[in-house]
Input
Amino acid sequence: TVLQAAVSDGFNRLLQPALEREWWSAVLEEAEASAVEQFAVNLRAKLLQPPVKDETILAIDPAYRTGCKVAVTGATGEVLATAVVFSGKPEEAASTLTSLLRKHACKTIALGNGQGS
Output
């Protein structure tokens, strides 16, 4: 009959595609949220991981005007000490660095590029 044909046509041409789009939109939105959440978990684990396993590291980011920023990180990645040394005061800088190296038994030194990046 004409009514059955109209209902069938309306469902096939209009209602079913709209329902499918709505379903896919919801599924993709949920998948995207889950992917972002998993990425955050993975990234957090990577960022909090110590740079060198079981090593205490003295890191220096050189700068002339504002001083070289120095940090000591422990074997598990925690910050043990920080300091600022100035290349214009070499004796003081050497004393500070030597003190940090001895106090924390650093075997590894990391140097930044001084570019703030």
Remarks:
- The mean pLDDT is 88.
- The longest strand covers residues 79-85.
- The radius of gyration is 30 Å.
- The beta strands are 57-61, 68-73, 79-85, 108-111.
